[in-house]
């Protein structure tokens, strides 16, 4: 029987991923760094100043210049899912 290459490819194990992304706060931090590694940039006006607004559970960023609101999951594979 042929070897299943997907099963044996390198990457994070379940234990390693739980260490880095085990809590919601850790996942939020990782998404923030992945989205804006050099700081927040408004997708509409490219402004860098922002307010953080809590919309229930999710963190929403509002640009101080144009007041455009965006979330951490906007423009990612999580957008449109029921994940919070």
TrEMBL record:
Q: Name one Pfam family in it.
A: Zn_ribbon_IS1595
InterPro entries from the xrefs?
Answer: Transposase_Zn_ribbon
Domain Transposase zinc-ribbon span(s) in chain numbering? 22-69
Tell me where on the tree of life, at the top rank, the source sits: Bacteria
Q: What is this protein called?
A: Transposase zinc-ribbon domain-containing protein
**Protein species of origin:** Nitrosomonas eutropha
């Amino acid at each position: 029987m042929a070897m299943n290459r997907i099963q044996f490819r390198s990457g994070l194990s379940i234990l390693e991923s739980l260490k880095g992304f085990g809590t919601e706060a850790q996942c939020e931090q990782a998404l923030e760094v992945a989205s804006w590694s050099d700081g927040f940039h408004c997708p509409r006006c490219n402004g860098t100043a922002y307010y953080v607004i809590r919309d229930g559970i999710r963190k929403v960023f509002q640009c101080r210049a144009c007041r455009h609101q965006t979330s951490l999951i906007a423009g990612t594979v999580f957008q449109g899912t029921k994940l919070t």
